[in-house]
Write a structure and sequence with these properties.
Layout: E1 2-10, H1 14-24, H2 29-37, H3 44-59, H4 68-72, E2 75-83, E3 87-93, E4 99-104, E5 107-114
Antiparallel strand pairs: 1-5, 2-5, 3-4
Helix pairs in contact: 2-3
Amino acid sequence: MQSKSQAKWIRMSPRKVRRVVDQIRGKKCGEALELLEFMPYKAARPVWKVVNAAMYNLIHHEKHPVAEKIAKNMVIVDAYADQGPTLPRRFRARARGRAMPILKRTSHITVVISDV
């Protein structure tokens, strides 16, 4: 069995999210949720929500529901953070009369869990 969950338009740089996602890839769901709860990074909360959503998609599946205990033992097969669109730009004044854009990055988080 396999379950996929996504969170889009997360207002955080994908580079910061990847730092968290790389640590949970390949772990069991229950273990990953505990890890994410106590991580000091701001990106841990949206990643926790996506892993939890993927797990509960299996538990509340219409045709083939799975027990919560079994869902916690599923493995995070694939987890990645892609770059979303950059929000509209503003400009910041720089040295010698120049201007540089302020890039407000977004990211899309995807988690796939499975019973390997």
